[in-house]
């Protein structure tokens, strides 16, 4: 019985998440209501609120699931022994990062909208941003131990500047109607970053 109840709970939660994603993508964050999600998931209000108290929590669940793919890219091994190796790794990570954002374009647009209206979603995005910056900081610190980056460079602030550059272009690719060339953007910003940071 316990196993059956657990399975039913998992299925109910999945239905709510799928329903929430469908309505968010169709209507955007502001126009979506938790009542619409519950109706589409064909579950009761009392049951639904056991899992998500509002649409903000449900979107955060979707964000976390999506961001796991981004984390896999950002947390790839980074142990270059030369400036050229560092550039090759950074180009690869940057392309994977921006390509993932483009592949999740519709959901990313919902998140961008939600950041302006939901403190909970904004806090979640801040947490995501800090995790990326911490990873980049560690990479720069490693490069310093290898003599590839000057010791007087502050790894944290260098990491913040690199992440914010990527984040800006990410939102442009996701939200702008203009079609910038992905490879040109990646090569340009990576050259600026590498030449400004690596010796």
UniProtKB/TrEMBL annotation:
Keywords: DNA-binding, Repressor. Transmembrane segments: none annotated. PANTHER family: ACREF/ENVCD OPERON REPRESSOR-RELATED, TETR-FAMILY TRANSCRIPTIONAL REGULATOR. InterPro entries: Homeodomain-like_sf (IPR009057), HTH-type_Tx_Regulator (IPR050624), HTH_TetR (IPR001647), Tet_transcr_reg_TetR-rel_C_sf (IPR036271). Residues 10-70 form the HTH tetR-type domain. The lineage of its organism: Bacteria, Bacillati, Bacillota, Bacilli, Bacillales. It comes from Alkalicoccobacillus plakortidis. Residues 33-52 bind DNA. This is TetR/AcrR family transcriptional regulator.
């Amino acid at each position: 019985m316990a196993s059956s109840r657990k399975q039913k709970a998992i299925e109910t939660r999945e239905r709510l998440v799928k329903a929430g994603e469908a309505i968010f993508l169709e209507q955007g964050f502001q126009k979506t209501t938790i009542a619409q999600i519950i109706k589409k998931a064909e579950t009761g209000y009392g049951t639904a609120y056991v899992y998500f108290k509002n649409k903000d929590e449900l979107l955060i669940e979707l964000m976390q699931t999506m961001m796991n793919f981004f984390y896999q890219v950002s947390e790839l091994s980074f142990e270059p022994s030369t400036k050229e190796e560092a550039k090759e790794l950074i180009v690869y990570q940057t392309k994977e990062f921006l390509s993932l954002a483009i592949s999740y374009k519709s959901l990313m647009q919902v998140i961008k909208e939600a950041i302006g209206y939901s403190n909970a979603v904004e806090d979640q995005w801040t947490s995501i941003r800090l995790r990326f910056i911490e990873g980049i900081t560690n990479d720069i610190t490693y490069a310093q131990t290898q003599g590839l980056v000057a010791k007087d460079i502050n790894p944290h602030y260098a990491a913040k500047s690199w992440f914010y550059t990527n984040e800006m272009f990410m939102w442009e690719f996701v939200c702008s109607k203009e079609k910038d060339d992905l490879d040109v953007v990646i090569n340009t910003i990576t050259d600026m970053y590498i030449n400004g940071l690596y010796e």
